[in-house]
């Protein structure tokens, strides 16, 4: 049984991308106590500067869309904790999520919606200082480094928003990247450098993270000369893409040969009480709108599971009586979820 010191929720959702946040919105609206645990906010959607195929928007940025869904979920009471999930287990019918920081969260139902996970640098000290100065989410943690020195390891157009945010909070930002320029667009690069507190560190790669209780420095290696340079910083932000990381789920739920989670049409996994949504599943169409729909489905299935576990049966009914039919009197109706 979960320890008395461990806070217990109706549902814990792993992942804060479009699938996870939509699941949080739907679960919270059903009045389930809901916690989202994720290493970052937005996931791969943050790599998309413009989305033109999400219903309801002619055009919207990935960050703006994520922020809107995050606000909706929080409005209904969902909580969000930024931490990397490193393990899950079931203890006497209660699911326990373990994080890199050592925290544990318990729940009656579990939704796995973490899509792909942030790619790590793979250098000494990185894992030791996760959550203690090493972050994989600029938009989550930049405000924590107001007036401090930080490094951003990342390149490509999607990092423009990251560098702008960091330079507005931090006193000094080292931008570390392996090529001649971090982004191709000269106008954007000039804007990023306009405040005078961003220093470019080109042709460089991270070599080691150093510190005591928290990060104190990032050591980088010049790819041309192999010369090492120590950057004295309080934080290291890593924004170098995403990878699929489901190894910690082996033996817990069924995975296919690609390491994706196998689900049925109700987003149920092979383990009762555990649901999955979005790009982490075997769904072949990796689209934001599909991930969002799966998040909603997983949340409603989790709600039904929790209610039935408490002895209340859920009956989902589609009632289309609100649709006017010529020659018939209009009646009220809609989509309803009933408890028996």
Descriptive notes:
The protein is an alpha/beta fold and 340 residues long. The chain folds into two domains: 8-117 and 243-319, FAD/NAD(P)-binding domain; 134-240, FAD/NAD(P)-binding domain (3-Layer(bba) Sandwich). 21% of the residues lie in helices and 29% in strands. Strands 1, 2, 3, 4, 5, 6 and 17 form a seven-stranded mixed beta sheet that branches. The protein has a five-stranded parallel beta sheet with strand order 8-15-9-10-11, covered by helices on one side. The chain has a three-stranded antiparallel beta sheet with strand order 12-13-14, with no helix packed on it. A hairpin with a 2-residue loop joins strand 4 and strand 5 (94-99). Helix 1 packs parallel to helix 2 (62-75) and helix 1 (18-29) runs parallel beside helix 6 (288-309). The longest helix is centred in the last third of the chain and has 22 residues, at 288-309. The model is unreliable at 332-336 (pLDDT under 50).
Shape: globular
CATH homology superfamily of the largest domain: FAD/NAD(P)-binding domain
What are the low-pLDDT stretches, counting only 5+ consecutive residues below 50? 332-336
The fraction of residues in strands falls at 25-35%
Order of helices and strands: EHEHEEEEEEHEHEHEEEEEEEHEE
Number of helices: 6
Question: What's the pLDDT, averaged over the residues?
Answer: 91
Question: According to CATH, what is the class of the largest domain?
Answer: Alpha Beta
- Counting helices, strands and paired strands, the structural category is alpha/beta
- Name the helicity range: 10-25%
Number of domains: 2
- Give the termini separation: 28 Å
Biggest sheet descriptor = 7 strands, mixed
**CATH topology tier name of the largest domain:** FAD/NAD(P)-binding domain
Just name the CATH architecture of the largest domain: 3-Layer(bba) Sandwich
Please tell me how large the radius of gyration is. 22 Å
State the total count of DSSP E strands: 19
Organism: Thermofilum pendens (strain DSM 2475 / Hrk 5)
Pfam families: Pyr_redox_2
Protein name: Glucose-inhibited division protein A
Keywords: Flavoprotein, Membrane, Oxidoreductase, Transmembrane, Transmembrane helix
């Amino acid at each position: 049984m979960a320890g008395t010191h461990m806070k217990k929720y109706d549902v814990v959702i792993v992942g804060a991308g479009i699938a996870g946040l939509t699941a949080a919105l739907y679960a919270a609206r059903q009045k389930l106590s809901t916690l989202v645990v994720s290493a970052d906010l937005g996931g791969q959607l943050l790599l998309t500067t413009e989305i033109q195929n999400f219903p309801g928007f002619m055009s919207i940025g990935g960050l703006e869309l994520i922020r809107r869904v995050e606000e909706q979920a929080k409005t209904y009471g969902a909580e969000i904790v930024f931490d990397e999930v490193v393990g899950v287990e079931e203890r006497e019918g209660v699911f326990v999520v373990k994080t890199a920081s050592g925290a544990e969260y318990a729940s009656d139902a579990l939704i796995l919606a973490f899509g792909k996970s942030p790619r790590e640098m793979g250098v000494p000290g990185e894992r030791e200082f996760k959550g203690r100065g090493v972050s994989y989410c600029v938009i989550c943690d930049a405000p924590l480094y107001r007036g401090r020195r930080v490094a951003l390891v990342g390149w490509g157009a999607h990092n423009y928003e990251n560098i702008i945010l960091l330079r507005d909070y931090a006193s000094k930002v080292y931008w570390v990247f392996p090529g001649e320029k971090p982004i191709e667009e000269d106008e954007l690069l000039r804007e990023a450098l306009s405040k005078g507190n961003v220093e470019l560190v080109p042709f460089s790669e991270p070599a080691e993270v150093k510190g005591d209780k928290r990060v104190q420095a990032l050591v980088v290696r010049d790819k041309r000369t192999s010369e090492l340079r120590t950057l004295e910083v309080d934080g290291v932000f890593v924004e170098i893409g995403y990878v699929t990381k489901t190894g910690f789920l082996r033996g817990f739920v069924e995975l296919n040969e690609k390491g994706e989670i196998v689900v049925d049409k109700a987003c149920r996994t092979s383990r009762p009480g555990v649901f999955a949504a979005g790009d982490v599943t075997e769904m072949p169409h990796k689209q934001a709108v599909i991930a969002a729909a799966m998040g909603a489905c997983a949340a409603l299935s989790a709600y039904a599971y929790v209610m039935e576990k408490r002895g209340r049966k859920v009956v989902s009914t589609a009632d289309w009586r609100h649709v006017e039919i010529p020659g018939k009197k209009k009646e009220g109706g809609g989509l309803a979820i009933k408890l028996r």
